[in-house]
């Protein structure tokens, strides 16, 4: 065991707390960069319609068929016919279209000449986002064109604000990162660095177990917040009914339940791991790695990657790798800041240097692998969602991608 003259208490505390502050600030910067909410901009938007917006048709069509850019959650998605005054027209029937991207509205027979509008709202099964808009068409001739009262101002439903969506998403992702990184960073970085200070091992293990408990609480709490925000955006009824309808009737709800199940399984597996004598419970350690790798999958299955019509499986896999790498990096910084560095306060200076001489290079390798994975999968996501240099420079998603890659 390394020994040295006992320093003044203030000197003993200075290094860990200063490093902890630096690490905490860097952690916040990384979170803001990697998970900037520009990833939440796509929706099931209108792709085409028959009749199209602005069309003039000579006679009342039997149907209005609308195709959207993402697959639809049928329990929420709607189309309503309005007259030029903005009043709903009775006698319509909504049905599914030819595929998951299409809705068809049967119109009443012999609609009178004039301008009509279709108010539509959608919930994407791919990313769980909602959208609402309208388009207008005219029956008759140019003489029958009339200005329309925009529908939706009176019939639009209360939805959660974008800030609520963003904050709940961040809360869920931060909880994911803190929990996912627990065993990989402990087993590959922290525990190997503590071999020379084994007498202090119980204290580090206690800190790590507290960290896991807090991370589990934050992961569940962040996901609960995301569920509540999602339920207010997509369902009718009382708040309790909204949550139940979201869980029971939407793909988002089913994937949310899978997310919570994985979080609980992760907590149980971590509780069974051998935190100090890791080799005595190797099976539990392997299981902890497997569960950590699985944790991002429910998130990716409700992300924009899941909306890809071609190469969906590869896109979801790439998004999961992106989330895993980002979580490993961010969660690793949190473990260094709130587990390792505070625990070094009770050690001698030579002991601290010995621990950091092992921990820092090992974490650097982990961080470099994570950054490379984030960069590669980020380029791939940019290619999928941006597609050209003009969009890279002009869209919010493209600009944010440039910032992320510049920081990396």
UniProtKB/TrEMBL annotation:
Source domain of life: Bacteria
Subcellular location, principal: other
Membrane-spanning segments: 21-38, 170-190, 211-235, 255-277, 286-306, 326-344, 365-383
SUPFAM superfamilies given in the database record: E set domains (SSF81296)
One GO molecular-function entry: copper ion binding
Subcellular location: Cell envelope
Domain CopC stretches: 43-139
Family annotation (Pfam families): CopC (PF04234)
Entry's Gene Ontology BP terms: copper ion transport; response to copper ion
Keywords carried by this UniProt record: Copper, Membrane, Metal-binding, Signal, Transmembrane, Transmembrane helix
Cellular component GO terms held in the UniProt record: cell envelope; periplasmic space; plasma membrane
Protein name: Copper resistance protein CopC / Copper resistance protein CopD
Originating species: uncultured Thermomicrobiales bacterium
